[in-house]
Design brief:
With 152 residues, the chain is α+β, with helices and mostly antiparallel strands. It has a single domain, classed as 3-Layer(aba) Sandwich (Restriction Endonuclease). Helix content is 48%, strand content 19%. It is built from 6 helices and 5 strands, in the order αβααββαββαα. The protein has a 5-stranded mixed sheet. A hairpin with a 5-residue loop joins β2 and β3. The two termini are 13 Å apart. The model has no long low-confidence stretch (mean pLDDT 90).
Length: 152
C-alpha cells in the first residue's frame, strides 16, 4: 500500500472517530496531531525554535477527549488497520508510550472498533478491547460509513 493510501485511510479513521464521539454528546473532541499543527508553523521554518517545536510535536496524539463534566481528559491516537494484530497493536502502543503516558489507542477495522489505554495494551501483550464508550447502534452506523470509504 502506498504512503498516500495509508495517509487517506488514516484520515478517514480520524474523521470516523471524531464524528462518532461527537455524536455521543459526552465529550468535547479537540483535534491535535502533527499534521494539523505543523502547517501553521511551517511558514516560520527559518526560525530555529520552530524546528525544535516541530520536533517536539511530531509524535503528538491525534485528539484530546474532554468529558462534558470536565473531570476526564484523555489523549487519543487513531489508527486504521485492515486486520487487528496483537503484534502490531503492541508495537503501536510501545511507540506511543515512548513519548507519552496515559494515551488511549483507537483502532478502526472493517469489522470493529477497538479502544484501550496503551498501558493496558502493553500489559496484555498487544490485546486491545473493543470500543465500549460509544453505543453499539452509533458504532454500527460509523462502521458502515468506514466501509463506504475504505472497501474491504
Amino acid at each position: 500500500m502506498s504512503f498516500n493510501e495509508q495517509l487517506l485511510k488514516g484520515r478517514v479513521a480520524e474523521n470516523i472517530f471524531e464524528l462518532m464521539f461527537r455524536e455521543t454528546k459526552k465529550y468535547e473532541i479537540l483535534p491535535l496531531g502533527y499534521e494539523r499543527v505543523a502547517p501553521a508553523l511551517a511558514q516560520y521554518h527559518h526560525l530555529a525554535q520552530v524546528n525544535q517545536v516541530l520536533e517536539n510535536i511530531r509524535h503528538l496524539p491525534d485528539f484530546v477527549l474532554i468529558s462534558n463534566d470536565k473531570k476526564d481528559i484523555h489523549f487519543v491516537e487513531v489508527k486504521y488497520r485492515a486486520h487487528i494484530s496483537e503484534k502490531d497493536t503492541l508495537e503501536i502502543a510501545e511507540k506511543i508510550l515512548s513519548h507519552y503516558n496515559s494515551v488511549f489507542l483507537f483502532v478502526a477495522t472493517p469489522e470493529k472498533f477497538y479502544f484501550e489505554t496503551c498501558e493496558l495494551v502493553k500489559q496484555n501483550g498487544g490485546k486491545i478491547n473493543e470500543l465500549t464508550w460509544v453505543d453499539s447502534e452509533i458504532q454500527k452506523k460509523y462502521l458502515e460509513l468506514l466501509k463506504d470509504f475504505i472497501p474491504a
